[in-house]
Design brief:
390 residues; alpha/beta; five-stranded mixed sheet; elongated
Length: 390
């Protein structure tokens, strides 16, 4: 049997111990969703007024565009209310518009606000962005400063209440086409208010007497109630919706351990739109391994044993980036078995050599003893015969 020397046995135990893996928890990074253009309304963009249960007009409203209802029961007040468009009552066009409205509503709700916890917006002068609050309100003037390409999205977790005589002013070429109000319950636009933007309410919308709207009033499930209002379609609106992007979040688990001199491969993954790229932002990979920035694949042949800690960062241009810290343990080269065999063969060779030497000595001594015995016996016999003859 081959014998493993104590030195080699100790090395084998130590190498086995090196096969452990350490993973540092990924750094927390909440994914952000942004949009680089207007919220896409789909076919709902064709409607200036769209209700879910009913559409009513208590006065003689003037509406510049289509009026629709789905899946509700009735549209009343037309005339005396008038529209330059078509009235779609529970038809296929209105049904599709409601589907597209739901998509637009969910998109607006998914965006990450740049400011939250807002209430009454009176006196604010806001640059383009996403703004959120619980009960959003406006009792005075709100100024929106931007260009024709600028986009504002307001998220109301509860209601939107625009007071009597409230005013929204657009400056710098900003357009009501690109102002969106996502309201989780119902919206009210007070008497004589001058309102701008598209209201997308989960429930109902009420426009009180003589309120004017440059935009759209779109209700998903409830009623749209009008009263002698002027509602105009925004001019110059683009039909191309903005692209929604979600920041990257690393989703890959811990990388496995490896061994020096043996090919290694591991793939880092991340969610998010568009696709993320990867980089090592601190620490270092084991010598011999490299990271492909596009695919996230760490591969190569490690050249040195040890524990290597590093941070992978995934980025797709939408903040915040996502980072995770990992450690890869690289074990020593696979020489334990070969050393044991060599050591065993050396020991066996020594045993065999020693045996051969002892055997050779034995044979030599045996032959000498036989020769000596024969020589002595022959001498005694000869002497005895000589005695007999004597």
């Amino acid at each position: 049997m081959m014998r493993v020397s104590p030195r080699i046995a100790a090395l084998a135990i130590a190498t086995t111990g090196l096969l452990g893996l350490t993973l540092a928890a990924a750094s927390p990074a909440s994914a952000a969703t942004v949009i680089d253009g207007p919220v896409g309304l789909g076919t709902a963009a064709d409607f200036v007024v769209l209700g879910g249960s009913t559409v009513t007009d208590a006065g003689a409203s003037v509406i510049d565009g289509d009026v629709g209802l789905s899946p509700g029961t009735s549209i009343t007040g037309f005339p005396p209310a008038t529209t330059t468009g078509t009235i779609h009552q529970t038809d296929a066009e209105a049904a599709q518009a409601q589907v597209d409205l739901t998509t637009a509503y969910n998109t607006a709700a998914s965006l990450t606000p740049m400011a939250s916890g807002l209430g009454d917006l009176t006196g604010a002068s806001l640059v383009p962005g996403v703004y959120a609050g619980g009960e959003l309100g406006l009792s005075g003037e709100l100024i929106l400063e931007g260009t024709a390409e600028s986009v504002w999205v307001f998220q109301a977790a509860s209601t939107l209440t625009v007071g009597t005589g409230a005013l929204i002013t657009l400056t710098g070429g900003a357009s009501a086409c690109n102002v969106f109000w996502q309201v989780s319950s119902s919206a009210t636009i007070g008497s004589g208010a001058q309102f701008a933007g598209t209201v997308m309410a989960s429930e109902s919308i009420t426009a009180e007497t003589a309120a004017t709207v440059t935009g759209r009033l779109l209700a998903r499930t409830g009623a749209v109630a009008l009263d002698s209002n002027v509602i105009d379609t925004p001019l110059g609106c683009t039909t191309e919706a903005g692209t929604v992007s979600t920041s990257a979040t690393i989703t890959s688990s811990a990388p496995p351990s490896g061994q020096a001199g043996t090919a290694y491969s591991y793939t880092a993954t991340a969610s998010g739109t568009p696709t993320a790229t990867f980089s090592i932002t601190s620490g270092a990979l084991p010598p011999g391994l490299t990271l492909d920035a596009t695919t996230g694949v760490i591969s190569g042949v490690p050249t040195a044993s040890g524990v290597y800690t590093f941070t992978i960062t995934a980025s797709n241009g939408t903040p915040p980036d996502s980072a995770a810290s990992y450690s890869i343990t690289i074990a020593a080269p696979a020489v334990v078995g070969e050393a044991a065999v060599d050591d065993g063969l050396a020991d066996s060779g020594a045993d065999i050599g020693g045996g051969l030497l002892i055997g050779a000595i034995g044979v030599t001594l045996g032959a000498a003893f036989v020769f000596w015995g024969r020589h002595r016996g022959f001498s005694r016999i000869r002497t005895s015969r000589e005695h007999d003859h004597g």
